[in-house]
Design goal:
single chain; 160 residues; mainly beta; Immunoglobulin-like; six-stranded mixed sheet; three-stranded antiparallel sheet; 13 strands; 0% helix; elongated; Adhesion_dom_sf; Adhesion_dom_fimbrial_sf
Length: 160
């Protein structure tokens, strides 16, 4: 999953990569849950650094999008990829959950413009904490297979 771990935005154009530990097919049995991470959850952060903008910034708003999304709000595996002779896994998605200040999780619904996360700026910096994890695809009759899992997401932020 391409996003950031952590990546500062401001004077930066850096893409980040979040690498999840390998999971066994038998581990990936549950579909996405709104407030529970899936298998082998990995923490990552997106840091919006506007400290050079001076005082006055109050809040940052962030949404995520991807050409690899589905109606459940998760990221589909790019099943067209093959790497080092290894074909893509089937029926595996990546769930992204926002982690709030109380460590509660809420599903980030990819490509849902109404699913906007908000963080306050402190000294010109807003930090979004997330978990990425494997979940079973919600495709009817789909069976999880071994293979490569790769996807990407784009984040967009605005501030006030």
């Amino acid at each position: 999953i391409k996003t950031s771990r952590p990546v500062a935005v401001g004077n930066s154009n850096i893409d980040g990569t979040v690498t999840l530990k390998t999971a066994h097919v038998s581990d990936v049995t549950a579909e996405v849950q709104n407030s529970t991470a899936g298998v082998n959850a990995e923490d990552f952060s997106i840091i919006i650094d506007c400290s050079d903008a001076g005082a006055g910034l109050m809040k940052s708003h962030l949404t995520m999008s991807s050409s690899f999304s589905n109606t459940k709000g998760t990221l589909d595996n790019d099943e067209t990829l093959t790497r080092s002779g290894i074909e893509a896994a089937k029926a595996v998605d990546i769930a992204v959950h926002h982690v709030d200040d109380a460590n509660a999780l809420s599903l980030v619904k990819i490509n849902d413009p109404s699913n906007t996360m908000e963080e306050s700026f402190t000294n010109g910096i807003a930090t979004y904490n997330f978990k990425a994890s494997y979940v079973k695809s919600s495709d009817a009759g789909a069976s999880v297979t071994t293979g490569l899992v790769s996807t990407n997401a784009i984040y967009t932020f605005t501030y006030e």
